User: Fold these one by one.
Assistant:
Number 1:
Amino acid sequence: MGRITLDKVRKAFGDVEVIPPLDLRIEDGEFVVFVGPSGCGKSTLLRLIAGLEDVTSGEIRIDGTDATHLSPAKRGLAMVFQSYALYPHMTVRKNIAFPLKMAGMDQAEIDRRVDGAAKVLNLSSYIDRRPGQLSGGQRQRVAIGRAIVREPSAFLFDEPLSNLDAALRVGMRLEISELHKRLATTMIYVTHDQVEAMTMADKIVVLRAGHIEQVGSPLELYRTPRNTFVAGFIGSPKMNLIEGAEAEKHGAHTIGVRPEHFQISTEGGTWTGTIGVSEHLGSDTFFHVTVPGFAEPLTIRAGGEVDLHYGDTIHLTPDASQIHRFDAKGLRLP
Amino acid sequence: MARAVTTQRKIVFTALAWGIGLMIFFPILWTILTSFKTEATAIADPPVFFNFDWTLENYQVVQERSDYMRYLWNSVALALGSTFLGILIAVPAAWSMAFVPTRRTKNVLLWMLSTKMLPAVGVLYPIRLILIQLGLLDSKIALIFILMLINLPIIIWMLYTYFREIPGEILEAARMDGATLKDEILYVLTPMAIPGIASTVLLNIILAWNEAFWTLTLTTVNAAPLTAFIASYSSPEGLFYAKLSAASTMAIAPILIMGWFSQKQLVRGLTFGAVK
Ligand SMILES: Nc1ncnc2c1ncn2[C@@H]1O[C@H](COP(=O)(O)OP(=O)(O)OP(=O)(O)O)[C@@H](O)[C@H]1O
Ligand SMILES: [Mg+2]
């Protein structure tokens, strides 16, 4: 079981309030991702749940029991750190066995579990090496191994993949998702990587300055962002936000159109602009288009084969059903 | 760091390093050489380097005149005793400053170090008087305590810098893994800090071994270590350079040998962990 409830949890470092009172429910078995800009309090929130940081006020319940003042070890949660935080003087086997040893488990059971975890994570061939003799990806697996042997009620990950290169990141992302499917244990995962959030999460929590801006499934956030912040934050490349006369035509202060929701044409359309930088990714092309009267260039996503170049004129028509409207406070209009 | 260094520069720097090294080592070499000369050759002008009649006579005389072993034992007791006591106090102190720092931690560290800038003579009389009152003048216990105190700021500072190198996340990981404070210190912190603690111990033994101000002023016979042994040869009876050199050589030999065998640790220690 791993149901975690935060009730008016607040955290201040000295006079600085990093997390204003916040409520959050995480259901058993859910994969929850915390996203938000750097410094918004994602790690702090995770560390509060872990017990590595004391709450200033409020209550944290794990499976219905009050865990607010329990020590980290007693909460039954396991954490994977960004720096891996492996014990450098211990072999892989000892690293993975450490939490079991601390729990006073008998050696036969420890060996059984460590071998099991090593097999699942493809670590068997390095089991007697030290962390210093492993690659980043292997270290990350050891850190995950150390977390899973304890059979915790929830896993906490703090940007576990950010020290890995792009290719390895994709691989580990799949492995973690796979692990979640198999174990069906609650996972809380901090990242600022769009793709990780969208692909792995059952539920995304978008944070800004310690506030929860929106909670929902990846598609909910993508389709109906509650405000301009979430609209701009979820989705890659970012949603185009347009203010002024064009927005007023739709009865809004701001309208938002995602790069993928435009018809492009060389003959005619709603807006006409000039192509600036274009980014060719093979499968897609992103055009940055300057439209007279718009404060910022629009980002447009087109197919990989579109033959348009710097300085060309382009006509854009936003998909009418995909225009998001926001009021002057940035809140979504129905 | 892969930086191209020209051969010419290499030669210049190597020569310079050797030159400075020899210059620093020369007095020690000269002392050792002199200890094998007769008193007459020792003061010969111009000085002779290697082509003299080597003799062990000085060592015999020194051994007969004074009880080297007793001084040696006192030195060992003072160096090891003060180091052990110091480490016992410094480890928890450095631990708390490195891992549970407060706003004042930096100031406390600087304040401790600043006590090393005080001239020792400034407190000589108060300390002497206290020891006389306590009847502890010329006792090893008192001296162990004083040597421990004068080196404590350095030990704490060194351990602090080593502990600071240990990432806090590793200790947090241990906490998540169910380690108690005792487990954390025993299974995680100490094994990781062993090289740092070893360097600190070595450096502190050397500092205590070489300490001459307090050991000379607070001892007469019973607690006198090798520093006093050397000093007794620069006597008013007239200077016997060869004998003085023999005594000096005997006094520095143990520490020189220890230093030689622990070079790597010592370099780490002396550079306060800057060299990995
Ligand atoms: N121990 C601390 N003392 C004082 N302020 C802190 C402390 N830890 C974090 N903060 C502050 O709290 C805020 C949130 O920090 P936190 O590490 O949770 O951000 P984050 O969302 O994880 O950022 P990032 O994406 O860069 O990791 C920051 O403004 C940070 O400066
Ligand atoms: Mg963080």
Number 2:
Amino acid sequence: MKLDSKIPGGPLAEKWDKHKFDMKVVNPKNKRKFTVLVVGTGLAGASAAASMAELGYHVKSFCIQDSPRRAHSIGAQGGINAAKNYPNDGDSIWRLFYDTIKGGDYRSREANVYRLAQVSNNIIDQTVAQGVPYQREYGGLLANRSFGGALVSRTFYARGQTGQQLLLGAYSALMAQVHSGMVEILPRREMVELVMINDQARGIIVRNLINGEFERYVGDAVVLATGGYAQVYFLSTNAMNSNASAIWRAHKKGALFGNPCYVQIHPTCIPRSGDYQSKLTLMSESLRNDGRVWVPKKKGDKRPPNEIPEDERDYYLERKYPTFGNMVPRDVASRNAKMVCDEGRGVGKTGLAVYLDFRDAIKEFGREVIEEKYGNLFEMYKMITDEDGYQVPMRIYPAPHYTMGGLWVDYNLMSTIPGLHVIGEANFSDHGANRLGASALMQGLADGYFVLPYTIGNYLGGTKLEKVSTDHEAFKEAEAEAKAKYDKLLSIKGSKTVKEFHQEIGSIMWNYVGMSRNAEGLKKALEEIPRLREEFWQNVKIAGSEDSLNKNLEFAGRVADYLEFGELMAQDALHREESCGGHFREEHQTEEGEALRDDENFTYVAAWEFKGLGKKWELHKEPLEFENVTLTQRSYK
Amino acid sequence: MENNNLTIKLKVWRQENAGAKGKFVDYTIDDVNPDMSFLEMLDELNEELIKKDDLPIEFDNDCREGICGMCGMVINGTAHGPKSGTTTCEVRMRQFKDGETILIEPWRARPFPVIKDLVVDRSAFDRIMVAGGYIDVKTGSAPDAHTVLVPKENADLAMDMAACIGCGACVAACPNASASLFVGAKVSQFALLPQGQPEATKRVEAMVAQMDEEGFGACSNHGECEAVCPKNISILAIARMRREYWKASVH
Ligand SMILES: Cc1cc2nc3c(=O)[nH]c(=O)nc-3n(C[C@H](O)[C@H](O)[C@H](O)COP(=O)(O)OP(=O)(O)OC[C@H]3O[C@@H](n4cnc5c(N)ncnc54)[C@H](O)[C@@H]3O)c2cc1C
Ligand code: FES
């Protein structure tokens, strides 16, 4: 298989415009003849579905939740980047591009990232027009704040609920298209198989989550906007229904998987408190604008934080990175938190936490200002920990949060399966080995509003598509395959619950394929995962039946996929003999403990081909070419 | 270390499907850590039930941080539980006493039929949004964001209204099962913004008509909705909706 990224020629700044001109355009009258199936209604899926329907395509939109408005994107707090340069602090499309490429540790495509920066401004215009109530200045203009990895203020936000407001904007646009009859929404449906006809993606099998029935849907193209896979760790900041299953099942049908080992561990989460815990709660990184991160200088210092005098505190981020201080990118902040805890200087009951202290900010600006900026986060912290962040420093610890890896796509956002497009967090595209804050919302909406609606026309207008229906043999086979899997799950009647298996795979992944990795641990993971998978298929215990609402069964299907997918993550992490961004291999670090890339040998995207369970995946490399930026050791000092 | 763990008794509404007759079933759960969330307590109970070959209790949830609006139970007679301004997933076990009995029911309202146990069908809310809950602005057609100025006070008020998570607690708490707070919040958000003006008349009329058609009752100013709203949306939303509706009808 030859990977063709389809990056257009010409100067960086002109590629997208030129490509838009060169692409096929479907005659408006013919658009009605096409149906596009969009799986997922997060920022990426909802914006894509609405925009394609506006162009005249028929769209069917699927999601797991009871309404498209509840997709995981709703939880995003901090904000969305754009290169508007409204604060006049020297921002530009080039600077946003540069920061994002550098933030991704030079493991993403220049052309994609530049396009992302270009359309970022349109996103702000579009969402303002939709009625998204962004934070404003007294003069009525939009307000900005800064996020990690940038020295300019380019993040737009709607209190601590930016994801919610942007998603409701996209959802409203989607509802407008339901009104006009161009979109049909199909909530409480889980895609369980991709249907291929003539080697093209032509349909999906979904399980109706209310009555358990399998349903067939046919289309001319399929779009996966199903989000990230951080739930493979069991504990993450993701919503409970986030999963890897849709992309995983497409991967097994032939879509290559790009950079599965690139995972973002977010530095500012509320630490874990017990085994019963079902999720980890993120507190927006914007807190690092005013909060100062520290641990005691002495190991095992158990004094309450407010009794530890100033000169016995180690503000380690400010000390090590004087330029960026507490605003270093997430991977750097997380790794440093782990390091100080490993040294025995962690705080709290478990010793797995560091302080985030607002004392000085409150002294300088007054409690009111801090309350206005972050009030809801302090409340959330109080609710969960029963502690008052205004009085005592908050305790934070890193948690799995976002996955940069995903299905490999070309510049047109199409996977290696013709017709199968992948957008949002589900693809591997724009963030390289580490994503900067406030750029996932940007990417999801860029893909959905401003990229896919063009590129899908190029595919539909330039491809021979046979007329097919859901009676096609391929649909029957895919449905039978899906049904067999769920029948099998229910027939096992073992003794260990789905949750117990999920916790086990989660702890393997966290221990060996987590914040820092080494060959020995990865090899151990590669032994343990298949063993656990085998045990799962012999011993899982699932309640209830197939023919009714059964969340335990839904989760069983997803955990079964993690037990396969985890192995690929470990294989990818083992093969990448360098450290870059969120992928930290202990064997490859500078003397100061920073990530050490190996540009000579690893400046490529690892795209893996499924060869059958129990077999090794085959590696395909897409070389990354840098014509406009110079690769340097990423420094935030 | 001292163990403050609780023993909790539950009376939970169990109903096999939409057509079946439901009933309360009693459970006791020991060793509940007060730091647990309410849903984590139910997770633990479900694990026990599964191990005993019993059916776990079905309940909707997703974000578990109070923002997606998917969770929703009536806890001891109050939608989303005793503490105001929180969703069910934000309820913590430290809010309950050792040995306490907790009554758990689904949203009860005719437009929200029960699907199973504590899971209800809220698709009526989506249909109200389809009727007019948007500003029609096709992708790519927007002018530069700074061409429209919005006074900060209005932007803030619009944000207060836009905070609605569509959970349906307002309906569940209302003796008339009215959806006025939900509709009022959306209507108000757009009414407060210049971008929302061109379609204001059409929007309020269409949304109110759909609300009626779905079988939601009329608002008679009980204020229960405001009391349970996890996002503290003020009942002023309903007043504003009425004003918008009145403006529309004299047009
Ligand atoms: C707590 C938190 C805070 C964040 N804050 C920020 C922030 O401030 N700024 C920022 O830029 N990013 C932030 N992020 C990241 C960002 O929110 C996500 O990356 C982004 O929203 C993902 O959007 P998406 O459209 O790709 O997928 P999602 O929003 O995850 O949507 C996935 C959709 O796919 C559906 N789906 C999944 N599987 C299936 C299936 N098998 N069948 C049918 N449907 C399926 C789901 O129902 C859902 O509708 C945050 C993330 C978290 C967890
Ligand atoms: S689960 Fe999302 S609000 Fe409760």
Number 3:
Amino acid sequence: MSHILQSDVVRYACTCGSLKPLSRIYFCRHCLKIRCGYCVSHEVDSHYCANCLENLPSAEARLKKQRCASCFDCPSCLHTLSTKASTVVVPSSDEKTVTRKLYYLACGFCRWTSRDIGYPDQTVASGGWPEKENPHASRIYNLLEHFKTLALREKQEREKKKKFIPRRNIYHLSGLSAAMARKRAGLPSIGPSSLKDDVGGPAELIPSAATEEVEQLPEEIFTDTLNLLKVTTLKQRLAQPEFQPQTVDELYPAHKCLLIKRSQRCRSCEHNVSKPEYNPGSIKFKIQLSAHYHVPEIRIVTCEPLRAGEKSEMIIKICNPTQYQSSLQFSPLPSPEEEAEELSKEIEERKQKVDRKDEKTNREDVLLLLPSICRQVSITEDPRPVNVALTGDISLPPVTLVLPPRDDAAEYDDSGDTHNFQDDPKIVVWRKANKAAMKLVITPEEDISEGRDVIVGFVMHYTYINTMATQLLEQREPQKVNLKVKLYITVGKVVGK
Amino acid sequence: MPLYEGIGLGTEKQPVVIDIGTAYTKFGFAGETGPRCIISTEVMCQESGRIKKIFSYSNEEELYSLLVEFIHNLYFRHLLVSPKDRRVVIVESLLCPSVFRDTLAKVLFRHFEVSSVLFVPSHLVALCTLGVSTALVLDVGYQEAVLIPVYEGVPVLHAWQAQPLASQAVESNLRRRLAGPEEGELSPHSRISESTIEDIKVRTCFVTSFERAHKITAGQPDPPPPSVSYQADGSSTVDVPGSARETAYEILFEQDGDEMSVSTMVLDAILKCPVDMRKELAENILLMGGTTMATGFKARLMSELKYLVTTPKYAKHLAIKVFKVHKPPAKENYVAWLGGSIFGGTDVIVTRSLSKEAYLKENRIPDWANLMYNCREDDNKSANL
Ligand SMILES: [Zn+2]
Ligand SMILES: [Zn+2]
Ligand SMILES: [Zn+2]
Ligand SMILES: [Zn+2]
């Protein structure tokens, strides 16, 4: 697997303009286009806990604030805590002693335990630990209720007199608006009855009162030595945003954050290009349209030392991963003008797609009744031009290279190839099953300095058998299409003369 | 089996509230009592493997890709929900550069396909955490201290104050003090990482009392607090002298040269407001931003204010004797976020958000630093006094 070590030697240009190695791109079988992590739509599929592997549907995860109910993180070093058991002898009434198991939480990395903060040991192995609540929670809910009422009233007022500019607008919401002004003026506050709406007055809220009293600097700060082991680090504080404990005795264990399984969707046809299996224990995918299975792979076999302005031979190996024969051709990269034209064509194509989608969903009655059901217009980003500076020239042989389909059995067959291809032995230097090696000539730029990378690029045209269309349109014959992809190869560094 | 959130009609997906600060980003869900996470506003560069701060962008294009990467992480590593077709509340500073908000809107709408964005100014929504409509809001963050008085729900924009008197100034001051005057650039301490300096600041430094600070400037300091030896990265030790612990924050209160300090910002802002607002503003101060959490900060600011109003510079113009501060139901570093969470938890998110459709039609966001269209006529008059 050359990918592990040289992942960015051969990079493929995605339709969106990103450059990625083959192992990091997808091939949408519906659009017949290359997609990558940047240009697909990511979606959260399911939540699971990395420690106990329990999985939760999204709605339940939301209720639990995307945290695991039974696993905890160490508040000191943020690793996962484990439950430890200890046996204690409990004297019982009839002069016999009974041993009982008690449980506490302990960190295997930093030796923090729940006893450090005075949590009593639990008699059950899981659960039962005290939950810390935000001390301001009830005040915040009061404020929330209050502003909800105000916002609702503003909405109703607006609807009632749409022609007038509302006198009280949203920035008065951040204040107390009418009710407060009346109180100040000494007028009786308006009750729900006198308001001709059905919301009623804002919920009773006591505005915050400012004081002259502030927390004073403790005198002993000037005399007592500071024990840093007792003061929490910034990282520990920010790990618990609502509490931000300053001393270590206030570090309470936090429920472990869940992780997600994510599916990826082609933005243009809304089919999945990657969808994992639901079970958190499984590393398999239900759908995985990796380009590795659809787009011919190119690897460098060898390359002569590269010298500025001089020709060197490079041998690349090309592999056809599909079940069908594929013929390949190579051409130079398009000029900037041609590329701009291609980009605008791509953008135009997308626009048309959006318009078509628009027509479908543009029934007003449906939109009004079921706004959440109608898919919204997809307005994806426009593709960008590939941003890479070439530092070498590549001469491409005008041949058509035919690669047989992949045959797993042939991998173990050493008896030689039965295929009979009319290859030019000067260009195609080696062949085996669905792979072939080809000789190319590279010329680094004249003025390239020693140690710089030589980057060359070309377009690979290949035939692809579209099996999706066969299924959909019930055609007998699989459809043969001509596809192309831009490739950028970082051949190596320039050596001295 | 796909398990979608909020199946059925009427159940809206919980909106997300994001407050992107220069140093830290606070984010979570609208209507919740605290942010889910507070993380550094930075991303790991995929090619070089180096940490890159979002605000170190050199052009719009770079900012765009930094924000895509950063926000992707927010949603999929921390919030764990899909951004698509979900509402967003952005808590932003009134002084936020327009290239930043335009690019942020573009990233959210075009890349993440969110259904709507509501931009709320941090100084205004912070009042939602108090339930009052008038306050002098001082936000001391990483790069700047920004003060905006808000009167009856309307920002008194011409009285705003901004000074680079914040965390960054404190940290470079601390670094200088750790290096010592004679060692200069070559000392080993000049190579301490930024995060270590920050941690030293948070754990060992404090804002000293008004009396002691005066003695220090007069050249007759009281004995300094005990020094601390700080274990950095497990191997090297940094000696933090008591004097550095005590004086790191002094840069915020010193009035050398231009005579600007955090305390004079408060008084200068009050002076710029109409006379009938002044008393109410002085008695409704809201302090927010991580730097105001430093031990002793509030006590010092109060005594500074009480002293400064008696000095000739202010005594002539200001008849104020009493200053009062609010205690919001949150830690100071996420007060603005909580304001956004409360504000975004109401129907306002439906009536006031910029929808995806509207954004696509206009292809830009209404400029909202221009608050004129939001103000009542009489407010405009008073704001222009
Ligand atoms: Zn892409
Ligand atoms: Zn778990
Ligand atoms: Zn630990
Ligand atoms: Zn597709």
